[in-house]
Each structure stands twice: as structure tokens, then as C-alpha cells.
Write a structure and sequence with these properties.
Elements (H helix, E strand, L loop, with lengths): L2 E5 L3 E8 L2 E8 H14 L4 E5 L5 H6 L1 H21 L3 E4 L1 H7 L2 H6 L9 H6 L1
Parallel strand pairs: 1-4, 4-5
Antiparallel strand pairs: 1-2, 2-3
Length: 123
């Protein structure tokens, strides 16, 4: 099963499980959009999962532009998946962290050091 996962934002986390190989990384948002579009063109994906994003007073205070960019990327991702016939799902950060705890990521050897965006995409 090939799964492509995205944690959208100003710094976007990306992760995949494909052909029995795991990879996680991060890119600036526009580069991540281009990267996703390229991978949808060259690889068969069984599922694409995006972390859902909700604008609250807190997120607006932190960064209005990043909040809007994240929501727009979710729409871009949904559209690209529809074009390629790939199922598209979202999950909340809480759902992801409840299921894929740090301990589970470490046990699977899917823990990535550094920024948490790739880890969030992995979840």
C-alpha cells in the first residue's frame, strides 16, 4: 500500500510509505505543493492523508497568512487527488497523536529528528 501524508503549513511536513519504504521530510509550502503534484504524477498512491486545519483566534494571532495557506493547500491537495483518482482523507492532529504516539513512531523506526512537521505528517 502506498500512502502519502501531509501536514500543511508555512513549513509543510511530508511523509510516505511506498514500496515498503518510509520517508519523511519538510519543505516550504509552495515547494511542498509542487512536490506533491510531481509525486502524484509519477507514482500510484492508494491514499493521501492531510492533517486537517481549523482557524481559531489563536492560529490567527500566530499567523493569518500561514493559516490561510494551510487551508488553501488542503484544497489543492483534495483537487490534485480528484484529478488522479486517489482517495483523499483528513484527520485532526488529536486523532493522529492519539493513534501514532511518539513511542510507536520510535518503535517503527519512523521517528524523525528536528522539526516536528515531518513527524506530524508521519502520524
Amino acid at each position: 500500500m502506498n500512502i502519502f501524508c501531509v501536514d500543511p503549513g508555512g513549513t509543510t511536513g511530508l511523509a510516505w510509505w511506498r514500496r515498503e519504504t518510509f520517508r519523511a521530510w519538510h519543505l516550504p509550502l509552495l515547494d511542498a505543493q509542487d512536490n506533491m503534484a510531481e509525486w502524484l504524477d509519477i507514482e500510484h498512491w492508494d491514499l493521501v492523508v492531510f492533517e486537517s486545519f481549523h482557524i481559531s483566534a489563536r492560529t490567527l494571532k500566530v499567523s493569518e497568512r500561514d493559516s490561510l495557506d494551510a487551508i488553501e493547500f488542503i484544497g489543492v491537495g483534495r483537487y490534485l487527488c480528484r484529478l488522479h483518482g486517489v482517495p483523499f482523507e483528513t484527520q485532526t492532529p488529536a486523532e493522529a497523536k492519539q493513534f501514532a504516539t511518539d513511542a510507536k513512531l520510535k518503535a517503527m523506526n519512523w521517528w524523525t529528528k528536528g522539526l516536528d512537521h515531518p513527524r506530524d505528517a508521519t502520524r
